[in-house]
Amino acid sequence: MAFRVSLHVKPMQWSNGQKAYNKALHGTPVNAALAAKEDDMRSLNRTHNRESFFKYMSAPTAAVVLERRTLRWSSPLLFNDPFDVPRELSFGIRPEDIVRALARRISNLIEQPPEDTSRLEPKVRLIVETVKKGISADLKAQLLAGLSDSAETLRPTDQSMDEFRQMWRDLLPQFRILCLTESPSHTAMWYHYADQYRGAVLELRCDDELDSAWRIAKPVTYPTSKPAVYTEDGWAEILTTSKNLALEDLLVVATYTKAPDWSYEKEWRITSFSRPPESGLFTDYRLNPQELAGIYLGPNISTPDRERILSLAAQYPSVAIQQVSIGMTREFHFSSVSG
After folding, report:
1. What is the DSSP letter of 27?
2. Taking the CA atoms of the chain, what radius of gyration do you get in angstroms?
3. Which residues contact 168 (CB under 8 A, 6 or more apart)?
4. Using CA atoms, how far apart are residues 5 and 149, in angstroms rounded to an integer?
5. What three-state secondary structure class fits 158?
6. Burial letters for 268-281: b for 16+ Cβ neighbours within 10 Å, e otherwise?
7. Which pLDDT belongs to residue 289?
8. Per-residue burial over 225-235, b = 16 or more CB atoms within 10 Å of its CB, e = otherwise
9. DSSP readout, 62-103?
10. Could you list the pLDDT tens digit for every one of the 339 residues in the chain?
């Protein structure tokens, strides 16, 4: 009698997923970082050595930020690029192709079992460890035949994929991302995100004493090839990986990779989740006045907007204000603005 191998893998519950996600992105829970009192502990929470980041925005938005002392963290559902954090999982991949890829993946694990099986989904790990201990050629052949049979007969509406997709749909509205960049002199950024040069750029200081959130920012990458998680073979690897680790891998790739067309942004991101009683698709989190290192006023900012921002900036004693202009060389020039 041939063995029949089930290819249904059940994803984790959302509460565990959120914990896994926070661990994947931050290493330690954010609350633990906030509780750190010693300087050496604060430095351990850093993910980079940058002194500051920059946030482009319109002049009215800059005025609201300065007045309310908050920054808006948004769900990716509000992003301008629909190809950014994917709205749907495995979009455009046929379920039957994923099932066949899953059969190939497990077959390869049986034929060539890895030394380290710690990342594997428990049921898959049990099979692989059993194979490593030694099984007869007949039994191995029956396992492989069972995998092939499962791939041919499993219905496209596979429950595990539907559950993963629903979990993702539930997650996106609760997701919070703050997008930053490395420089105040990106021409395209001024045009697209600062109201066609009429807006402003805020410089955010990575302050260890204040435990600034942007100290744990991570850079976005812009791969020229499609990440594996967007292919059927990538999904086969996800479904055979321990659920916590699989979700970590999936969320990190979805959050920190973008198409090469966006590489000019040199973007960094910080992520979190909404917390009760928060609702909607964004949250305005507090900005400590000491974290605001600079304000860059756009070349085409209007006089009323400029005066309003300068008035509000008086509440920020540590801020340096720069007026941005465009010279004959078509380069940005920065001149200090006195209080």
Report:
1. S
2. 25
3. 86, 88, 89
4. 8
5. coil
6. bbbbbbbeeeeeee
7. 95
8. eeeebbbbbbb
9. HHHHHHHTEEEEE-GGG-S-TTSS-SSTTTT--HHHHHHHHH
10. 444 444 444 444 434 444 444 444 444 443 333 333 334 434 567 899 999 999 999 999 999 999 999 999 999 999 888 778 888 776 677 777 888 888 888 888 888 889 999 999 888 888 888 888 888 888 878 777 776 666 555 544 456 667 777 878 888 899 999 999 999 999 999 999 999 999 999 999 999 999 999 999 999 999 998 888 888 898 888 888 887 888 788 888 889 999 899 999 999 999 999 988 888 999 999 999 999 999 999 999 999 999 999 999 999 988 999 999 998 888 899 999 986
Report which residue type is found at 242: S
Tell me the C-alpha distance between 222 and 211, whole Å. 29
3-state secondary structure of 124: helix
Torsion of CA 283, 284, 288, 289, to 10 degrees: 160
Q: CA 243, CA 88: separation in Å to the nearest integer?
A: 19
Location of structure tokens 């509406």: 157
Say which residues have a Cβ less than 8 Å from residue 15's Cβ, sequence separation at least 6. Answer: none
Return the amino acid letter for 221.
T
Pick from 14, 84, 90: nearest CA to 274? 14
Structure confidence at residue 159 (pLDDT): 64
Domain ranges of the chain: 46-88+172-222+258-337
Neighbours of 124 (CB within 10 A): 22
Contact 268, 217 (CB under 8 A): yes
State the sign of the Cα–Cα–Cα–Cα dihedral 221, 251, 50, 81: positive
Q: What is the DSSP secondary structure assignment for residue 229, as one 8-state letter?
A: G
Length of the chain equals 339
φ/ψ bin of 284: left (φ > 0), alpha (ψ from -120 to 50), beta (otherwise): beta
Amino acid letter for position 317 = P
